[in-house]
Amino acid sequence: MDAVIGYLLHANLLTVKVSINFDNTYARLPERFYARLAPASLRVPKLIRVNRGLAESLSISRDWLESEEGVAMLSGNQAPEGAEPIAQAYAGHQFGGFVPQLGDGRALLLGEIVDTKGDRFDLQLKGSGRTPFSRQGDGKSALGPVIREYIVSEAMAALGVPTTRALAAVASGENVLRAEGSLPGGVFTRIAASHIRVGTFQYYYARNDLEGTRLLADYVIARHYPEAADSSNPYSALIGSVAKAQADLIAQWMSLGFIHGVMNTDNMAVSGETIDYGPCAFMDAFHPQCVFSSIDRGARYAWGNQPDIGLWNLTRFAETLLPLLSENTKEAKSLAESALSQFSDRFADQYIGGFRTKLGLPSSAPVTLIQDSLDLLASEKIDFTLFFRRLTQVAGGDSHQDLSVLFPEEEVFEKWFSNWRKEADPGNRYSEMRLANPILIPRNHRIEQAIQAAYRGDYSLFHRLVDALANPFDEQTEYEDLESPPLPEEVVHETFCGT
Ligand code: AMP
Ligand code: MG
To answer: Does residue 441 belong to any structural domain of this protein?
Structure first.
């Protein structure tokens, strides 16, 4: 829907009022689903960046977003007309332990907008102050996590992965106290298909609130999976649809070397979008057990564990719907199991298909070559993205020299390479490979450099990264330096939560 430009004549002053055309539905659900409140105000917010392309696709005037009034909204100083700010309630399993009440502790849903294609999106502020769900937290965000989420979520979108999007980043002009000390704060504005999580369902389940679960399930079906409504058992169809969306998503993450880092059930969106970029990372050197998150001590959310965790989370989701599936407990369980069983096959298909494409393998090539290739990358500690990038160049006709130099042991490479040559069909698959193997990913050390510069008030590295990552599959000579893995002194070993 169009941003509406209305010239409103007030009592004795003429103001130019530009509003977003909100169409809020979540705020029509019962009051126990959320808390209504206004965002906290900031004295001297400073706009860092507006995502102009995204604003346009949502028919929000980018000039307005960058105006004083727009920044007032993006910093939480003023809720625009039609917004109905709410903090959403949810629960969640965090690292396997159930917390019956989490909720938006530092986020505020301003409302929903519908784009020109008819798709509905949430507009949410992150870091806009305390809410009834804040517990001990201050409801604010340091600037670092704002910068990180902006860069990574936009890179994900450009890589073709379902994700929440960054609409804007604002420096709050205030400092927040974190373990690292006093840090400049920020407010992030994000757009999402919705912010409904597996943990949102768990909130009602934990309270034996069957009516709440039903209302939420019906809402999700109507908003995200309308075809499920026509099924003989809509709730089992809902489980199946969410399972498929997550299977596709996790397979895509893995094909890019992405580690979400905190796959708690409160960080898994039922829409199938990647959500909550905390201590996430794209791997440099490949290892299936790779973890970056400073809070993931047991490596629960390592790269290679993501499908198992995905299914574990989906099982928690299905659990909440059991009473809706059938009055007969045994039948309900069997319906849930059969819906969940779609996950593994779907994941395997997507994962194998994704890596076949990345490696330029026809369907006749043995599937074992995928695992052999990944084993090779792991044992030789090869940079994941650079390997596939250079392999793509070989498929495009370049010599294999640039690929072989990545390997410390020449014979090991030669053995693998001759095997690959025998099985692969690079000539016919080059264009596919190009679209599956990005040249640029948001490397951790680059994000870290951008964050550190932002803390000094210099946003140039941030802007440059965002600009470069908008076209991750293109040859962009001006951004060639961003292709390289980190130097030993640049390696980031740990990433931190947004708190
Ligand atoms: P996360 O795992 O970082 O997505 O957050 C888990 C929970 O902690 C959510 O309920 C957040 O809203 C809450 N939370 C995180 N950081 C803060 C903060 N600074 N203030 C209040 N609540 C927070
Ligand atoms: Mg979260």
So the answer is: no
Q: Would you call 276 a catalytic residue per the annotation?
A: no
Domain that holds residue 47: 2-195
Instruction: Specify if 300 maps to a domain.
Output: no
Residue ranges of E strands in 10-138: 14-19, 34-36, 46-50, 86-88, 92-94, 97-99, 107-114, 120-126
Residue 498 in contact with ligand 1 by CB distance below 6 A: yes
Q: How many CB atoms lie within 10 A of CB 138?
A: 17
- Cα-based torsion angle of the residue sequence 421, 424, 425, 430 in order, rounded to the nearest 10 degrees: -90
Distance 458 CA to ligand 1 centre (A): 27
Q: How many CB atoms lie within 10 A of CB 334?
A: 14
Residue 97 DSSP label: E
Report pLDDT for 14: 35
pLDDT digits (tens, 9 = 90+) for 403-456: 999 999 999 999 999 999 999 999 999 999 999 999 999 999 999 999 999 999
- For ligand 1, say whether the CB of 149 is within 6 Å of any of its atoms: no
**Residue 267 CA: which ligand 1 atom is closest?**
4
Instruction: Report the nearest-CA residue for atom 7 of ligand 1.
Output: 102
pTM, two decimal places: 0.95
159-171 core/surface letters (b: 16 or more CB in 10 A; e: else): bebbbbbbbbbbb
Q: How do the residues of the chain divide into helix, strand and coil, expressed in percent and rounded to 5?
A: 45, 15, 35
The verdict on the CB of residue 307 being under 6 Å from ligand 1 is: no
Give the nearest ligand 1 atom to 94 CA. Answer: 2
Nearest ligand (C-alpha, residue 106): 1
Angle between helices 329-340 and 342-359 (to 10 degrees): 0
- Ligand 1 pocket member 443 (CB < 6 A): no
Task: Work out how many domains the chain is built from and give that number.
Answer: 1
Give the integer Cα–Cα distance in Å for 104 and 283: 29
State the catalytic residue, choosing from 104, 122, 266, 383: 266
185 lines ligand 1 (CB under 6 A): no
Query: Has residue 212 been placed in a domain?
Result: no
What is the model's pLDDT at position 10?
A: 33
Q: Interior CA angle at 466 toward 71 and 58, to 5°?
A: 50
- Spatial contact of 437 and 392, defined as CB atoms under 8 Å apart: yes
The list of the chain residues with pLDDT below 70 reads 1-18, 497-499
Burial of residue 484, with CB atoms counted within 10 A of its CB: 0-12 exposed, 13-18 middle, 19 or more buried:
middle
Asked whether residue 288 is assigned to any structural domain, the reply reads no
